[in-house]
Design brief:
The structure is a single chain. This protein starts with a helix and ends with a helix. The model has no long low-confidence stretch (mean pLDDT 91). It is an all-alpha fold. It is globular and about 55 Å long. The longest helix has 25 residues. 47% of the residues are buried. Helices cover 78% and strands 0% of the residues.
């Protein structure tokens, strides 16, 4: 029973559901960049983003262990379900495995995955405490996961317009989510982080999050007017549904921040599915 409890704590630490979103983003970037499907390349496009995200989640909890005693007491470290040494071992194994599984994608993919991991370390060490700059870095890293899939597909910086569009939408909406997380954690962050809600107030931060989501919606219009030839036409219905959920989530930021965050995450999943289905399904 003790080993089962430790396994559950380990999974809670790396947050596999969150990491699975990164894997899906890598796969989508691979498809949108026109990657030739092979088992080795599919693994290289999906597993490293999953493992880098797992690494980031682990070092996040290690960095926030004291803060989480009040903000998130049920997490593995503050609850005592997992020790710091075990958490560091998990983080190290995840990073090593990420770099190893990126190898079939070529050295540019390995370098990109390694750079993202280093930026996650920099975020935890310094940028997290700065508030908005750290929020921006996290948002850029989320969008870059799609670009990573494109690098595995092409061996170079991807230039596929729909891939770049989706990466931009992901960055904008995740920046909004990061800001709303800071609104939700404003009391726990006081005295520990210089977040935007503590600087300008929760109302102004909600307004900025709302504006960022709407900017992502405006960006998505490009997909409706410049759909690539041969794409599965109904994909635009899915994208329109995602846009509707994005807007609903942004509006609910004034009522229920937690629900707003979850809706923005759901909308991003639907948008990802829309782009993936458009590119992969024939007419």
């Amino acid at each position: 029973m003790a080993s089962l409890g430790r396994l559950r704590a380990s999974l809670d630490l790396v947050r596999p559901g969150n990491a699975a979103m990164a894997a899906a983003a890598g796969a989508t970037g691979f498809v949108l960049a026109g990657g030739v499907v092979s088992p080795a390349l599919v693994v290289a496009a999906t597993l490293p983003p999953f493992l880098v995200a797992a690494f980031g989640n682990a070092i996040n909890d290690l960095s926030d262990a004291e803060l989480d005693r009040s903000a998130h007491p049920n997490r593995p470290l503050p609850s005592g379900r997992l020790g710091r040494r075990a958490a560091w071992v998990l983080a190290s194994l995840a990073l090593a495995a990420a770099l190893a599984t990126a190898l079939p994608g070529g050295w540019p993919a390995v370098a990109f995955a390694g750079a993202n991991a280093l930026l996650l370390v920099a975020y935890e060490a310094r940028l997290k405490a700065t508030g908005l700059p750290g929020n921006i870095l996290v948002a850029v890293l989320v969008g870059s996961t799609f670009l990573y899939g494109g690098i595995v597909a092409t061996g170079q910086a991807p230039a596929a317009p729909m891939l770049l569009l989706l990466a931009a939408m992901a960055s904008l909406t995740n920046l909004a989510r990061e800001l709303l997380k800071d609104v939700e954690d404003v009391d726990a962050d006081r005295g520990h982080r210089d977040t935007l809600p503590l600087r300008v107030g929760q109302g102004q931060t909600r307004l900025l999050a709302f504006a960022l989501v709407n900017l992502a919606l405006v960006t998505s219009v490009v997909a409706f007017v410049r759909t690539p030839a041969g794409w599965w036409t109904p994909w635009l219905i899915l994208l329109a549904a995602a846009d509707a959920v994005f807007l609903l989530g942004a509006c609910l930021a004034w009522v229920n921040v937690g629900l707003a965050q979850r809706l923005l995450k759901l909308a991003m999943m639907v948008a990802l599915l829309a782009f993936l289905s458009g590119a992969s399904a024939g007419p």
